[in-house]
Amino acid sequence: MAAEFFIPETLEEAVSIKEKTAKSFYLGGGTILNLWTKKSSKNLISLHKLPLKGINRSNGFIEIGSMTTMTEMTQDPILKDNIPLAELLKSCYEVSKNTRNMATAGGIFGSRYTRSDFLPLFLVMDCDVISYTSGGEKRESAESYLANPPSKTGLITRIAIREKNEPFFIKTDRFARSSNDLPVIKTAVSFIPKGNSMNDIKIACGGLYDKPVRLYELEELLEGRDYSDGSIPELIRNRFAEMAPGRSDIRGPEDFKKALASSMIEDIIAGSGKEQKA
Amino acid sequence: MKIKIKLNGKIRTFDEDPMTSLSEVLKKQRLLSIRTDCDGSGMCGACSVIINGVKKHSCMVRFGQICDGDEIFTAEGFAKGRDLHPIQKAFLDAGVVQCGHCTPGMMLAVKELLDNIENPTPEDMMDYLSANMCRCTGYKQYFDVLKMLKDQPAEDMSSFRKDLRIVGKRQIKVDGPKLVKAEPAYVGDMVTSDALVIKVKKSPHPHAFIKSIDTSEAEALEGVELVVTCKNGPSRPYNTAGQGFPEPSPYDFRLVDRTMRYMGDRVAIVAAVDAETAEKAIELIKVEYELLPAIFSPFDAKKPGAVLIQDRDISADPLPIGQDPKTNRAAHNHGGIGDVEKGLEEADIIVERDYGSSRVHCTPMETHRCFGYIENGRLVLRASTQVPWHLRRIISNILGIRENQIHIIKERVGGGYGAKQDLVMEDIVAWVTWHTGMPSYYEMTREEEFVNCRVRHNMFFRVRAGAKKDGTITALDIKEVSDTGPYGNHCLTVPMNACSKSLPLFKCPNMHYDVSTYYTNNIISGAYQGYGAPQGSYALQMAVAELAKKLGMDQLDLLRKNMVEKGYHLEILKSLGEGQEGIAQVISSCGLKECLDRGEELIGWNEPLISDSPYIKKGRGAAIIQQGSGLPGIDSANAELRMFGDGTFHILMGGTDLGTGLDTLAVKVSSEMLCTDFENFSILSADTDLTPFDVGAYASSGTYFSGMAVYRAAADMKEKVLQTAADLMGVSRDSVKMEYPGRVVSGDKSLTYAEIAAKTQCGNGIGQLISKGNFTTEEAPIPYGAHFAEVSVDTRSGEITVDKYYAIQECGTPINPELALGQVYGGVVKSIGHCIYEEMKFDKNGKCLNPNFADYKVPMIRDLPKNFKCELIEVDEHLGPYGGKSVSEISTNGAAACIGIAIYNAIGIWMQEWPFTPEYIYRALQDKTDKPHLYDFVTGMKS
After folding, report:
1. For B130, which residue in chain A has the nearest alpha carbon?
2. What is chain B's percent helix, strand, coil content, to nearest 5?
3. pLDDT tens for residues B752-788?
């Protein structure tokens, strides 16, 4: 049977179609889905007519509508003024202009892609994913959303990022072979600086495993440490050496990727001291 | 789904399947600016459109995502009538329209930029062009577009040949307006709706014998017109390389063979009424294979007892090139001057080291495509080819028909770089059209372009270099093993070129080379810009740099002491021929010293290198390079000029413009010679019926050979005009002279060209003035250059950044300076990509793992080095047209060597294999033992 293309006009209609139609997928900007469904017969539910665009403040969170494109994010005054979200904007600028014009906030999560430019960043923010299901609205942390299989998640309506009222450090780094490549490795680090110490440190990495992950054991090692501590690089390298083997593929062997991730995190932390002083 | 949209300002109703991509919908409307060059992966930007003010990849938008009332702007929307839009004009003025295939998407990127940012910076430019791939220009001159749109001065091109009126000056290229307007130009634009669609069934095995093949179900499928297999295809062997005749390549290829020699080899050809039917028929073909052992390394191929890949009779081969199929050897040659062993004995310091390179792909934006039809009982092929006459000759052999039954029309070529020097699929279209009598079209996908076209040879070298304590090089020896894949196109000439474009850079009395090429079950190697020179240059320059290090000499001092100069006799070229004895040359011009001096100054060669991290190490490197200007004694070119009735001229040139500006060069040379404006010339080139013979665009022959044929035709026309005018005025020939703009004077008498045309073409005139020019030669000017790089290497991860790159190129007179400079930028950027991330990867069965732009990365505008400059240096040259010599191809020869040397100077490790990917550098940093010998050239083992 030929694949069908649905254009729902309400959230309820979209969710209902999804539940009734086997092998169906929500279509946002299309930068990923249009690529991998091109040669296969998949039913598509286009979200372009749903009211899912826009960026608002709500109860201490900044909420980004799931159909908001990266370009729209870069143009929004709320994000521009917000320090934690500067890294989000930086990541937006790291993708090519056409992709930025098309890719959406919801698609970032929907793709669950390990080489995402964004997911490691969302993992180190206080970030929730708000979905719509036939059972109503569902809110869960970014990490929880990514931990569930796609079949158990609903239609993403908003990404909610907690605003920070205290000093907060957050930084990402990426390595890609060329500028229009998805990252081979993307890392993100956040913490609350108190004096020179790193508190509530969160570290995430994409590209090393099948999906972007928080590096809890490394976080434990570094929690409360002075970011200018000269032993940190060695701690990070040793921790990476002990981690489970990562993905080896045409973008490089896993030990090379670990070396990349390790050096990126070292540099972010070393640079954080300079940034705090500045 | 039926909707109304505003397309380029006009309301249009569309009724299409919502699943269809927007690019397909727009292409159906014959919007020729929409080009899908990446199989719809959103990686090239050639299909860009602006939807409601936002630029998107139309290949990644479904028609169902378009709404009633949406506004779509394509590049067709720029020009009003015949007038150019300022963006189109700026593109032409800046010289960024080379092959032109990326141009519509690029122009939309600039439009989006200017629509959103009033005063864009270069950084904004890079951001807005970040999605658009260009393989010709190296992106740098796009910044001139911005300047020109703001009426700011662009790069100064006024300093060349001040004594000439048009040669050496900026000039909108002759084919530029139609390219920026996306008028019909490329093969795909010419295809008629009744053309059969061709698809090819590919081998899933790297080496196999077809025991049986059943096409009955496929042939019975409605809409299938022809199925060709080894059972009904032609049996005569041929070679796909479009090079001099008799070809220095073996006849080891068949249209469809019974033996499959690489993963992707042709199993069957299907021609059907549409693509869907052809693909269905492909699935219905049943094949039973007998699997054979496969070989993926030339070192394995040469081992005694290795399975034979081309177990064939060599008597049909046109030339003896050292082929020995019984040992898998496709070609072999050796020779030299002096006595290398004696030279090594005289040396105080000797370097002996191995170097290797892997496969990279030309990746022209326009994939291979060909449209065939029958006209007046003759076969017509409209092709994107660099070699129309070789194509005609080879097709004539395959079909067993006379050459006068074949007409090849070379359309605009959307990027060649060597990829289109071979018959890659034109033989298939010819066979289908000739045997069905119906028009047929084959357009390769990007994946086919990667797997089934031609890639740069992977080569393995052992270099021995010796020098005295004072830095005098006493011996240079190259032993080389190359991998031709399963077929031997270019199997001798590319590997030979690795030596003939590297050894003659040095004044060394003892030089030797030994070149062997082997068959393997890898994909097919072939021509790619540089034609072996990048690999050879890398190996030899690295070895010479190591000599300098061991001698304790500065690298530039060693180069200066030993490099050739004008007037030097290159005896070595006598043995480095192309399947026949070569011709020794005396260097007619050489700007190596000027290039080295300028590069040294730009990069600050002796300035300290400062790193702000203990992990980041920095280094600099340099390389001297050369290429050729065609093949003296082998190549030939022809051209004609005709005077029209109003005194304007038409040029008929055999030379093939593959986007490089050869047609423009022909017009400029003629305009200069005949003292009349550029606009007074039209040109038709590379049409086997209508224009005279030319060997084609390869071996850097365009400017020199095709250009000289035009120069001579224009000189002949000049003489005819002068003599005719003298006769008409009743004065002596000696008393007349030609004057700009377009007249002949003698004292107070004068005749305009229009008057001369009217008098010669009237009923009692002498007839239309027609002139001819032919060019063959035994001497050719050599272009030289020097490249400099500064790199940073992260010693923890191997991450490498090219911080600075300077390419200084001497080119005699740059006839089209802005286009020439753009080609140098393009070649350099390509070769930086080759050094750091471009690499075709394969699994253990020879299957290509990255046949797409998502996984095979090529440089984009944001990948340019932070400090990046190419410069043209004019030198006095007497052989070429107005002093012109080749300029473009050479630019790929320097990056690997200068970056490799820079890496050594940063981290102290010689990079012996290319590309220098971060993971390769990481590995080298982990394992610091120096292993000069990587390969065993005797027993064929890789260490």
Report:
1. A96
2. 30, 25, 45
3. 999 999 999 999 999 999 999 999 999 999 999 999 9
Question: Residue B897: what residue type?
Answer: A
pLDDT recorded at residue B939:
59
Helices (H), B82-215: 86-94, 103-116, 122-128, 142-149, 176-180, 187-190
pLDDT at position A84 over 80: no
In the predicted model, is pLDDT for residue A257 greater than 90? Answer: yes
How far is A159 from A176, CA to CA, in rounded Å? 26
Q: Which of B820, B826, B819 is nearest to B95 (CA)?
A: B819
Query: Closest Cα of chain A to B550: distance in Å?
Result: 32
Distance CA B599, CA B791 (A): 15
Burial level of B101, CB count in 10 A (0-12/13-18/19+)?
A: buried
Closest partner residue to A178 (CB to CB) among B129, B837, B922 is B837
Chain B residue numbers touching A5 (CB-CB < 8 A): 1, 17-19, 62, 64
Give residue B201's region: left, alpha or beta (phi > 0; psi -120 to 50): beta
The yes-or-no verdict on residue B178 having pLDDT over 90 is yes
Residues with Cβ < 8 Å from B748, sequence gap 6 or more?
Answer: none
Tell me the per-residue pLDDT of B280-298, one tens digit each, with 9 for 90 and over: 999 999 999 999 999 999 9
Residue (of B630, B627, B631, B675) closest to B649 by Cα position? B675
Residue A2, pLDDT above cutoff 80? no
Q: For A106-146, write each residue's pLDDT tens digit.
A: 999 988 899 999 999 999 999 999 999 988 999 999 999 99
Contact call for residues A60 and A162 (beta carbons, < 8 A): yes
B317 interfacial to chain A (CB closer than 8 Å): no
Give the single-character DSSP code of B574.
Answer: G
Give the minimum alpha-carbon distance from B276 to chain A in angstroms, rounded to a whole number.
12
N-term to C-term CA, chain A: 62
Looking at the DSSP bridge assignments, the partners of residue B893 are none
Q: Residue B381's pLDDT is what?
A: 98
- ipTM score of the complex? 0.96
Digit-coded pLDDT (tens) for B22-45: 999 999 999 999 999 999 999 999
What is the sign, positive or negative, of the torsion defined by CA atoms of B679, B680, B685, B687?
positive
Token pair of B746, please? Answer: 């003698």
Say what the pLDDT of residue A278 is: 53
Global pTM exceeds 0.95 = yes
CB count in 10 Å sphere of residue B123 = 9
- Name beta bridge partners: B420: none
* pLDDT attached to residue B593: 98
State the amino acid at position B375 in one-letter form.
E
The total number of residues shown for chain B amounts to 943
pLDDT, residue A277, reads: 59
Chosen from B3, B37, B60 to mutate, greatest number of chain A CBs within 10 A: B60
Cβ atoms of residues B417 and B362 within 8 Å: yes
d(CA B503, CA A121) in angstroms, rounded, equals: 53
Separation in Å, CA A185 to CA A93, A153, A175, B273: 17, 26, 5, 46
Answer whether B506's CB lies under 8 Å from B500's CB: no
Q: How far is CA B899 from CA B529, B602, B835, B885, in A?
A: 19, 16, 8, 27
Q: How many residues does chain A have?
A: 278
Q: Is the pLDDT of residue B820 over 80?
A: yes
Confidence (pLDDT) at B943: 41
Q: In this complex, do A46 and B798 lie within 8 Å of one another by their Cβ atoms?
A: no
Q: B12-17 — which CB contacts under 8 Å span 24+ positions? A: B14/B63, B16/B63, B17/A5, B17/B63
Give contacts of A252 with chain B, Cβ < 8 Å.
Answer: 917-919
User: Which residue is associated with the tokens 């080009």?
Assistant: B35
